[in-house]
From TrEMBL:
GO (cellular component) term, any one: plasma membrane
Record's subcellular location: Cell membrane
Membrane topology qualifier: Multi-pass membrane protein
Protein name stated in the entry: Cytochrome b561
């Protein structure tokens, strides 16, 4: 029996690297991975900032600063989401790992709803800002207003913006729970496909 055939033999470095790269199946393209984590951090930050700033009293000078920061960050993340949608259409995405049909349907539904929320939420916020006298500044640049000063429409769009925010919190929790289930219960290392 040769050394390579011995049960105590260690696999060579190339075989170990290949095994690691195949853990969880094929990986996402680097751009998709980078956009996923940038958008995830941005959305979590925006949700935290949004929940914090709405609790601040009106007229507080820092509240206006935080609202403008929230708008600029929100539109930046929105542009990254649009870029990610284009990148998903162009770049190769690995297929889902083998899983029961209900899990596959749940994963696709959750991802689809996340994308709907990531597009609809900033649009609702921007429209809400269009129906007040302040408008929206994107990193200091005043953007066009698509409406007039109308308290009813402003509250309608801000209400939609807020409702989508809470829905996104639930969807993100579901998305993270699914990823952790695959990592710790199924042990299929699916999470490795999206890690940097």
């Amino acid at each position: 029996m040769t050394t390579a055939d011995s049960p105590d033999a260690k696999p060579d470095a190339d075989a170990t690297a290949a095994a690691r790269s195949n853990a969880g199946g094929p990986r996402y393209a680097g751009l998709l991975i980078a956009l996923h984590w940038l958008i995830a951090l941005g959305i979590i930050g925006l949700l935290a900032l949004g929940l914090y700033m709405v609790g601040l009293p009106k007229g507080l000078p820092v509240k206006a600063t935080l609202i403008n920061l929230h708008k600029s960050l929100g539109l930046t993340v929105f542009l990254l989401v649009l870029l990610r949608i284009v990148a998903r259409a162009v770049l190769h995405r690995p297929p889902l790992s083998p899983m029961p049909p209900w899990q596959r349907a749940a994963a696709r539904t959750t991802q689809g709803l996340l994308y709907v929320g990531m597009v609809a939420m900033p649009l609702a916020g921007y429209l809400g800002s269009s129906f007040n006298r302040y408008g929206t500044r994107f990193w200091g640049i005043l953007l066009p207003k698509w409406g007039w000063d109308d308290a009813h429409l402003r509250e309608l769009f801000f209400g939609i913006h807020e409702a989508i925010g809470y829905a996104l919190i639930a969807l993100i929790a579901l998305h993270v729970a699914g990823a952790l289930k695959h990592q710790w219960i199924d042990r299929d290392n699916l999470l490795a496909r999206m890690l940097p």
